[in-house]
User: Fold this.
Amino acid sequence: MAVPHARRIVGIDALRGLVMVLMLVDHARVFFFHVQVGDPMALPATPPGLFFTRLSSHLCASTFIILTGVAAWLYGQRHGGPRAASGFLFKRGLFLVALEFTVVNFAWTFSFLPQTYYFQVIGAIGLSMVALSALLYLPRPALLAFALLVIFGHNLLDPIRFEAEEQGHALWALLHDSGDIPLPWGASIKTAYPILPWIGVITLGFSMGPWFSSRVAPEVRHRRLWLSAAASLTLFVLLRLLNGYGEPLPWSVGATTLETAMSFVNPTKYPPSLAFLLMTLGAGMALLAGLDKAPRGLTSTLAVFGAAPLFFYVVHLFLLNTLHQLARALSGPHPGKLASFSNILSIWVLALIAVVPMWFACRAFSQVKARSANPWMSYL
Assistant:
């Protein structure tokens, strides 16, 4: 049987580019915004500007990981099927985990031996890719069933807890509960992104891959994406109204309509609850359907970022951290306006300024990558 041809969908790169820009805004907040609270989504302590800035970045992990699954299916179609996709996913996944604990952690801290190593989105993508490298041999209906079971069922595991001294704590912190894993030399790993729900998301993306085959008319794909987005967001609203399963922190009526709305759209991210995944995946699928038909100028501009996602991620962290260290040095012993902003609008302005050199850097890197015959370039 002939293998369906896979083509590049501009909306995929454009959506990746959009969420990466939102990620840059959020990371600019981390480095430069001094009106910090323990959790930028904590209510009612968080002002609306900070809350909605942080909320916009919630799209990033869910969207990027489901698109990683789609891209894995497309890779298999271009390179010979499941075996090729499995081998690539396994090797690149391990590469990303190694990158997380070396280059990425250094970019965040500028420390070669930090006391805390953060296991964040790059590591979660890496281990999810390793898991998908084994799962993808299942029939597509089984893959879809597995993905939905994990996404809809992982909150059933919430009552399970392992204390730091108990056997199984490290594995459970990696799979389901954010926690600290002690290391022999006194440092620790903070698992900000437990991987079990993300394995469900990447598997869902892979099972959606055939929607992007050239044998599927764009109108059919758009209809499926819109229907999926509507179903996901409707389920999110119903779950939130019920204030029951799928979200450990119920919403509440605030002093104002705005506070109530903020509470309603504030599901748990660490680890991502069912409500969080329904909200962000629904929004992501709606954006993907919309960007696939958006003006070419917009999508081609965003696609420059989306075509070099790992390069963007690493370089933007070095850029923001370097700018912050320079600003602190220029500000003297008491960081002033250069290194610490109190207006969230200033963070957006800074991020939009930083986006410009990042766009040119990503375009140049993509051109180098396209000309290179080095197989390692496919890992970047």
Summary: The radius of gyration is 21 Å.
